[in-house]
Amino acid sequence: MTYKQIKWMILFIPTVTLGVWEYVRHEYLLSYISMEIGNWITPLIVYVLSITLLNKLFHMLERIQRELEHERAAKSALEAREKLAIELHDGIAQSLFLLSVKVDRLEVHEEREHHLQEVYTIRKTVHEVNCYVRQAIANLRYDPAADEALISNESLDNKVRRMADEVFLDMDVDWSIPDYALNPKEKVELLACIQEAIVNIEKHAVASKGWIHGEGDEYSWKVTIKDNGKGFEMDQFQPKDRYGLNIMKERTENMNWRLQLERDHQYTIVELTKEGEIG
Predict the structure, then answer these.
(1) In what order do the strands lie in the sheet with 267-274?
(2) Predicted local distance difference test score (pLDDT) of residue 104
(3) Last residue of some domain: 73, 107, 130?
(4) pLDDT tens digits, residue range 176-211?
(5) Cβ–Cβ contacts within 10 Å for residue 117, how many?
(6) Tally of structural domains, the chain
(7) Of 78 and 94, more confident
């Protein structure tokens, strides 16, 4: 029953009930009930009606009012959180991105070897701070008490496909990991690792084709990023200037995931796995 219907029932039920009672009393009961007794019965009917049906309707009205107030408060809180998340993204996150670009330029300085360790340290710090900011944004946009359908604007599948579409490379995406399988922090970390792998393919692999495959559930999953590029001839985690891959490795270690980078014939394969491989 809607709020409006309850209000109309509260207004009309006493009126209609008393109208029917007075009509019946005057038309059929005057010979049995005197006017004085009838006048006492009328307020009694109003009282009985009030403590039974009308009291129940008032409780329903109060409950609906409380629910409306709770929804308005929750909506206001979510709007404030979303506004703060946008400010974080447009301010701090964009500034970090600009700083990252400047670090990239510093890498190609003629004294590259001299500055390499310093660049790696700066870039690692930028990645870590960027991670914290993105996690803060994700936490602000996530409300465990609210319906997930109202909070989540984009699924993991769509985010991964959007990443693949942003690179100048033909990328096939096959994604079946459900959104509920990962908490907000896991989503942020996984998307950052996938982004790093895609960027490496675009920048270094000289590939013409790439694949992203994700499968599993909340207990175990595996994400595979594969390309047909030139590959590598050494352990890519050893060189100190491979800060992107090393930070990816640190991310997976912090999340207790397994990161594997291998060359299989003409393909380079990056695997991110939670709790073992999926058969």
Answers:
(1) 170-175, 209-216, 221-227, 267-274, 258-264
(2) 67
(3) 73
(4) 999 989 988 888 889 889 988 888 888 888 889 999
(5) 11
(6) 2
(7) 78
